[in-house]
Design goal:
Layout (H helix, E strand, L loop, with lengths): L8 E2 L5 E2 L19 H10 L26 H8 L5 E5 L9 H15 L6 H7 L4 H8 L6 H19 L10 H10 L4 E4 L4 H11 L7 E3 L12 H10 L6 E5 L2 H9 L3 E5 L13 E3 L7 H6 L10
Parallel strand pairs: 3-4, 3-6, 4-5, 6-7, 7-8
Antiparallel strand pairs: 1-2
Helix pairs in contact: 3-6, 5-6
Length: about 300
């Protein structure tokens, strides 16, 4: 008795194609019209094999305001409102006038006390926005010993306090008005500074800005200062806002670099420096009186979903 033929196996294109070897009687194999080349190509295209160039649907990312996965419509409305972005202010150069002269003299006096070469002007400018320990070890290259770096940083703070002499810091124009505007729209505020807490809190109190911020991040809260964005990320976490929905108001290219590294927007306060030097920022203003709530909202107008 002859052996039985193998059974046809179903093909994903929709027709039954016999197994290799075919029908020994020489008859045509059973196939439906859908097995034509045009039909098979359309079938494989509709199966989503990736050969048609179709992209998958976009998925939600933390920076996009609207989140369709939220079941509560009131929560979605809140995310689309004016309060769903946070503003991060820097202390020196934004909230109070930057004490460039006293800061540089404190480093020069410390160098004289320790028998070090006085730091050049370019090094002093590079040190702005960094923690004292970073400046000592990475910019001035005075020591690699962490304990010695902390000792020099503490001594520099003591010298700077003597130079400042308890003077009341100056608040640039437009700062309090912008803070009032943001608070009226229920947008959270945060302060980030590379200075230690023992200098930040008295400065805020002397300037009349205490209690203005929902979060305050100082050098004591982070391991590294600018251009590392650690301080900005911690501020965003304390404000309960995703980084992509935060805007940093800074006064240097280090601020711009740190903000953009984590997807934050950055408004640069030029002051007396040339505007073109801060051209990498999303927006550059001379003073905060030129900044409105609409300007800040427009920074997020071009938000896009990420497909993956």
């Amino acid at each position: 008795m002859p052996a039985s033929l193998p059974r046809p196996v179903p093909w994903e294109g929709g027709s039954d194609v016999p197994a290799p070897g075919g029908d020994p009687s020489g008859g045509e194999s059973r196939s439906s019209p859908s097995s034509s080349p045009s039909s098979s190509s359309s079938s494989s295209s509709s199966s989503g094999g990736g050969r048609t160039g179709l992209k998958p649907l976009p998925r939600n990312v933390e920076g996009v305001a609207d989140d369709v996965s939220l079941a509560n419509p009131l929560q979605r409305m809140e995310r689309l409102g004016t309060a769903w972005f946070g503003t991060i202010f820097e202390l020196d150069g934004v909230c109070i006038e930057q004490e460039c002269g006293d800061g540089g003299r404190s480093w020069q006096q410390l160098a004289a006390e320790e028998g070090k070469a006085p730091p050049p002007l370019w090094a002093l400018k590079k040190a702005q926005g960094m923690k004292n320990e970073q400046v000592v070890s990475e910019v001035f290259c005075w020591t690699r010993n962490p304990a010695e770096a902390r000792r020099l940083a503490a001594r520099r703070e003591a010298i700077l306090a003597e130079l400042l002499g308890g003077r009341k810091p100056l608040v640039p124009g437009g700062v309090t008005q912008l803070m009032d505007l943001l608070q009226r729209n229920q947008a959270p505020l945060a302060l980030v500074s590379s200075a230690p807490e023992q200098r930040v809190l008295p400065a805020l109190e002397a300037a009349g800005l205490q209690g203005r911020f929902d979060a305050v991040v100082t050098a004591d809260d982070v391991h590294r200062g600018q251009p590392d964005p650690e301080g900005y990320l911690y501020a965003a976490q304390k404000m309960q806002r995703p980084p992509l929905r935060c805007v940093v108001i800074g006064s240097s290219n280090l601020s711009i670099e740190a903000a953009h590294e984590v997807g934050m927007k950055c408004v640069a306060l030029a002051g007396r420096q040339p505007v073109y030097e801060l051209g990498a920022a999303d927006l550059v203003v001379r003073d905060l009186s030129q900044l409105s709530f609409v300007n800040l909202k427009r920074l997020f107008a071009a938000e896009e979903t990420v497909s993956g």
